[in-house]
Specification:
Layout: H1 10-39, E1 49-57, E2 65-74, E3 80-86, E4 95-102, E5 105-112, E6 115-117, E7 122-124, E8 130-135, E9 145-152, E10 158-165
Parallel strand pairs: 1-10
Antiparallel strand pairs: 1-2, 2-7, 2-8, 3-6, 3-9, 4-5, 4-8, 9-10
Length: 172
């Protein structure tokens, strides 16, 4: 009587086991290495956002909008993006803007959906780079504090108080 070729034999079982050992060992080794890398703190960190130097230009001459500027630091190891700015003092119409330069001067402002905040870097808004366009809704005076909340793609929302300044004093 001929043995059934589909019945496991000791040799077939040994061959199957040996064939499975290599990929399983590689997976265990990779998982162990990644676990050790993470436990040692080398796997990176999420974005860590801080907001400083918040200022809002004092509206002049009956203009319908003004600009707010923020310094946003990301001390984490991952990029993030500013996606929205809100304020209880401004019910609607706040927009993110980027400035385009021609011959060293701001040529035009473009509304953008988001502004990048690089890992280990900074988004330092200025009249030459980017800003937050704010509709004029109140009678702000020099030195007033206007509350804003900055919303990010990956990080929690960050509240900030912007001081109202005359446009020539924005960097002070």
């Amino acid at each position: 009587m001929t043995p059934d070729p589909w019945l496991p034999t000791r040799q077939r079982l040994a061959d199957t086991l040996l064939a499975a050992v290599a990929p399983v060992s590689a997976c265990v080794l990779a998982l162990g290495g990644l676990s050790a890398w993470t436990a040692a703190g080398n796997a990176g960190s999420p974005p860590r956002i801080g907001v400083t130097h918040a200022r809002l230009y004092l509206p002049t001459g009956g203009t319908p909008q003004t600009a707010a500027f923020f310094r946003i630091d990301n001390t984490g190891d991952a990029d993030d993006e500013l996606v929205k700015v809100t304020s209880p003092a401004v019910p609607a119409g706040i927009a993110l803007s980027r400035h385009h330069m021609v011959s060293g001067r701001a040529a035009y402002r473009e509304t953008v959906p988001r502004l990048p905040v690089p890992a280990g870097g900074r988004l330092d808004m200025s009249p030459l780079t980017a800003d937050v366009t704010v509709p004029v809704t109140g009678q702000w005076r020099d030195g007033d504090l206007v509350p804003f909340t900055l919303h990010f793609e990956h990080s929690a929302a960050v509240p900030a108080l912007a001081v109202v300044v005359r446009s020539g004093a924005a960097g002070k």
